[in-house]
TrEMBL record:
The reaction(s) this protein catalyses: UDP-alpha-D-glucose = UDP-alpha-D-galactose
Species annotation: Luminiphilus syltensis NOR5-1B
Pfam families: Epimerase (PF01370)
Domain of life: Bacteria
Name of the protein: UDP-glucose 4-epimerase
Enzyme class: isomerase
Record flagged with keyword NAD: yes
Gene: galE
Amino acid sequence: MHFLVTGGAGYVGSHIVRTLLRQGHTTVILDDFSTGHRWATQGQEVVEVDLKDLPALRAALAGREFHGIFHFAAKSLVGESDEEALLYYQNNVDGTSNLLRVALENGWHRCVFSSTAAVYGNPVTATIDEDHPKAPINVYGETKLAMENLLEGVCNSKSFGAVCLRYFNAAGAADDASIGEAHTPETHLIPRALKAAAGNGGDLTIFGDDYPTADGTCIRDYIHVEDLADAHSKAMDYLQQHSGFVALNLGTGSGFSVKSVVNACEKVVNRAIPHTVGPRRSGDPDSLIADASKAKKLLGWRPKRTDLHTIVASAWAWEQVRPVIDTDGG
Ligand code: UFG
């Protein structure tokens, strides 16, 4: 089959492209390269367009045929989102509205959407299922929820199917280390710890050790990006048979504290990682752990790379070979 992958030059999007190619499908990557990388496009046709530009989007995609869309293109920095609310709403929500308009005009009626646990806000239960209240605590989460709502509205009013996949903490890299995480700035724990280990990313600060958890640091559910890619592929298979809207959590159901992640990184790199303990980062909930039973049931999906060592080892293998991108932006 032939798929449109928006944001296909980004971290998670490029792994989905890789999985689709290995399954014998073909893709067109749509990306504005604001955060994506040309080296991540894996020889695929690239349409360089900004989703906010409806005439350009129409012109670039009119008359094409796709069996479905994977929609990743979005701004995704929590801190930046609270400072640039208008930018985030325009880019994420208006961009999705334009994409859906062009999809309907061209008769593409399936979308797998990259959503986030940030739609839930502060957890009110120990594990989070899809019925948990949706109360985002940052603009990023608000825009992702608005994008989900847009998709749901289109599903309810047109012949359309959408699966929203709410990731917990995406981590790791391709099994062959051909692609992986490369954000500028890098804010995520595992790559920051590994950069500190390699001595090329400054020091690592643990943001708070006074949380009400066993070791005082925040607990997160780390899900390997290859397992995310597998879930996306299964979600698109599901949409070949079903229409309507569904939202599914993607996580392993196991939580790891920040300190245990740093310990796992130290074991993988076989050296101590210099770090300090600083104040809490604003907006960090104590613990975020997925109940992903709905995705398992509906898609027949099972995460395979669930232990922390495997996740960190794959991120470390990528860290050794990744292109230097901090200065060239691409
Ligand atoms: N952390 C540190 N030091 C760092 C970086 C992170 O201590 O240098 C801590 C954070 O405070 C947090 C944990 O490590 O407790 C994980 O932080 P990340 O930044 O790696 O990930 P988040 O849990 O903040 O973010 C993830 C996704 C977001 C999503 C959010 C809420 O990356 O896209 O979960 O679901 F919005």
